[in-house]
Amino acid sequence: MAASWGTVDFDWSFVLLLIFTWYILLRVWENNGTLDRWNASRVFGVILMVRSKRGLKLLDKTVKPRSFWRFYGEVSLWVCVFSMLMVGLLMIIAFITALITPPETAPSASELVAIPGLNPVIPLGWGALAFIVALVIHEFGHGLQARAHGMRIRSFGLLQLGPLPLGAFAEPQYEELTTAPSKERMRMFAAGPATNIFAAVICLMFLGGLAGQFVAEDSGVHVRGIVQDEGAYDAGLQPWDTIQFIDEEPVANVDAFYDVMAGYSANDSISITVMHRDGQIETVNATLSDKYEYYTDLGWSSSDLETLGIERGDPFLGVEGLSGSTAGIDRLAGPLSPRWEGNIMQKSIMVPFHTLSMMIVPFELQGVAMHPFEESLLQADDNSFAKTLGTDGLLFLVNLFFWLLWVNILLGFTNLIPMVPFDGGHMFKDMLRGILNGVKKVGRKLKFWDINPMWIEHISSKASNISSLALLGMILFILIIPYF
User: Which of 279, 210, 208 is nearest to 242 (CA)?
Assistant: First the structure.
């Protein structure tokens, strides 16, 4: 089963031609009144803003009881303030790192845009579907907080470049938004990114449940890499071969591999039964080398090797990336996989870190959630749910929830960059207003300074604009410096 739905190779001149054609089409629709009939407008030249009243009735029903959603807004605010500060700190660290050690390779133009199919790590099908879902729940989160605090929503809508969704919006009454207390407005801005972050954690929970529905089709340990000129290389092993037996001892998992290898020493010869990627089973002979000498040649110190428990004479086969047959799905599910060892407390601590670590998966695997070979090692478990869906059905759900998780994390944390027009920028501006206004105390307002409200607005706006420009400059510097 194809997991990626493909990535489209674009010719940039053709893309520019399509954008120009889209621009001409929008101008024609604008002049003949078509956009007015669609309740749409053209922004930034080539972006179509489509408004709709659909979803407003559902929003009013969902927002009851309002006390719950106000509490949700408060939790969202704290989550987003912490995340926003972390995002800002990471951007500063990245900028300083680029100053000290400039990156040598520059990203391609297609890698700079998070457009499904155009970006090489975001597949067209899964990416477009996940972006639409993530954008809808992001804006619905904004809408819920606005209604929970008495602000009316005029419409929902999408921002489109041709058929591609670039964004979504919930359009509140502007006067009610600007006159609302800053705390309520901050909750409203925080609700969108927080909803994406919470949705990503829920998707991870689904991945954990799906991991329990898979078993290994064949027992054994597969290897991702073969070290050149070592025993496995000389014996003819290839990446993604599966080791099933060593001297007729079964190797069911990684622990079993190390247990078997512990009985050998450097320079011993062993026979290895392997299954190649094409399904062919072969028995080959390999001579083990000295692991201590191998790592010493790589520049490891004796103290480092002693810390790792590596001694002279320890056997080294020359294979890397050892993992069991369920490694692909277990890597995605992380601490929520039934095969992950750890207690509930350890799992709870690891969940947020693992969720963030999932962002690197498409970059490592070139746009897929799981390597096709790792998928081929899985089969549905022998229970009614897994049998009903089958292996292909379960893999479909795995890819669906992975890309929903990935896009929700991307959308949530990108919107927490503390620069306008992102939600984080608006939150940062309101935080400055709150600091300049003073600190509220029970029954009265305690102020450490007395600043005219007009000056508060002026200072917070100026500071927000300066910080936004500074962060934008950092981003551009990181992107441009590799070209010099």
Answer: 279
pLDDT in tens, 372-424: 888 888 889 888 888 899 999 999 999 999 999 999 999 999 889 888 778 88
**Residues 59-65: contacts with CB within 8 Å, 24+ apart?**
59/140, 59/143, 59/144, 59/147, 59/153, 60/147, 62/144, 63/144, 63/147, 63/148
Residues 86-106, mean pLDDT to the nearest whole number: 84
3-state per-residue secondary structure call for 207-242: HHHHHCCEEECCCCEECCEECCCCHHHHHCCCCCCE
Judge whether 168 and 150 are in contact, CB under 8 Å: no
Looking at the DSSP bridge assignments, the partners of residue 216 are 378
Which is nearest to 460 in space by CA: 414, 416, 413, 420? 420
Distance in angstroms (rounded) separating the CA atoms of residues 58 and 64: 11
CB neighbours of residue 310 within 10 Å: 18
Rounded alpha-carbon distances, angstroms, from residue 388 to 7, 12, 298, 394 = 30, 44, 51, 10
Strand (E) or helix (H) holding 16? helix 12-31
Q: How far apart are CA 338 and CA 310, in angstroms?
A: 31
Among all chains, which residue has been given the structure tokens 């399904």?
279
Q: What is the pLDDT of residues 241-253, one digit of tens each?
A: 889 999 989 988 8
Q: What would be the CATH architecture of the domain defined by 221-324?
A: Roll (2.30)
The whole-number pLDDT of residue 108 equals 67
d(CA 12, CA 343): 51
Give the C-alpha separation, 254 to 257, whole Å. Answer: 5
Per-residue tokens: 226: 């073969």
Q: Is 482 within 8 Å of 104 (Cβ atoms)? A: yes
For residue 448, with 0-12 CB atoms within 10 Å meaning exposed, 13-18 middle and 19 or more buried, which class applies? exposed
What the block records as the tokens of 376 is 């081929």
> CATH 2.30.42.10 residue ranges in the chain?
221-324
Taking the CB of residue 211, how many other CB atoms lie within 10 A of it? 24
Q: What's the whole-number mean pLDDT along residues 298-320?
A: 88
pLDDT at 429: 84
The model carries a pTM of 0.80
3-state secondary structure of 41: strand
The identity of residue 96, as a single letter, is I
Q: Which residues are bridge partners to 170 per DSSP?
A: 156
Q: How many other C-beta atoms lie within 10 A of the C-beta of residue 16?
A: 10
* Residue 445 predicted with pLDDT over 60: no
Instruction: Tell me 483's DSSP state.
Output: G
Peptide bond between residue 65 and the one before it cis (omega within 30 degrees of 0): yes
Write out the two tokens for 334.
């992380």
Kindly tell me if the per-residue pLDDT of 283 is higher than 80: yes
Look at residue 440 in the predicted model and tell me its pLDDT: 46
